[in-house]
Design brief:
Radius of gyration: 15 Å
Order of helices and strands: HEEEEEEEE
CATH topology: OB fold (Dihydrolipoamide Acetyltransferase, E2P)
Structural class: mainly beta
Largest sheet: 5 strands, mixed, barrel
CATH class: Mainly Beta
Helix content: under 10%
Number of domains: 1
Distance between the termini: 24 Å
CATH architecture: Beta Barrel
Strand order of the largest sheet: 4-5-6-8-7
Number of helices: 1
Shape: globular
Length: about 130
């Protein structure tokens, strides 16, 4: 049984991100001045330092950039093993999330897609499935 995780307290620049995520929509910031897509949310663009940006929905599709398999849980409420990965989204940014798969099936470069079915006010973990 996976433990529920509450939405954390956030900076003002990230409030809309978390609201949309709990509604099942995964977005990244897109700079209005240079077009850079940014994750995680922040006050300014990491490329040109502009504060002019908007949230843009993304597909949630990408590939595994790197991963680790966690065999010992930090709490008895969490199931193990857990595959924790950095996913390079098709739209560019890299995000960290969990890949729900057998650890023997994961490999760098594997195609994955976000599973939005678990996104809610009580669970905001990004969980991917092998595509």
């Amino acid at each position: 049984m996976a433990a529920e995780k509450e939405v954390p307290e956030v900076q003002p620049a990230a409030e809309e991100f978390w609201e949309r995520l709990t509604d099942g929509e995964f977005c990244v910031q897109a700079c209005d001045d240079c077009g850079e897509r940014v994750f995680p949310p922040r006050k300014y663009c990491i490329e040109c330092y502009s504060e002019n940006w908007h949230y843009e929905p993304v597909s949630g599709e990408g590939s595994v950039y790197g991963y680790t398999v966690i065999h010992r849980a930090s709490s008895k409420e969490y199931d193990t093993p857990v595959v924790s990965a950095i996913v390079e989204l098709a739209e560019g940014p890299r995000v960290m999330g969990r890949v729900d798969c057998d650890p023997d099936e994961i490999e760098t470069g594997a195609a994955v897609a976000l599973d939005p079915s678990n996104l809610s006010d009580s669970d905001v973990r990004l969980t991917f499935q092998l595509a």
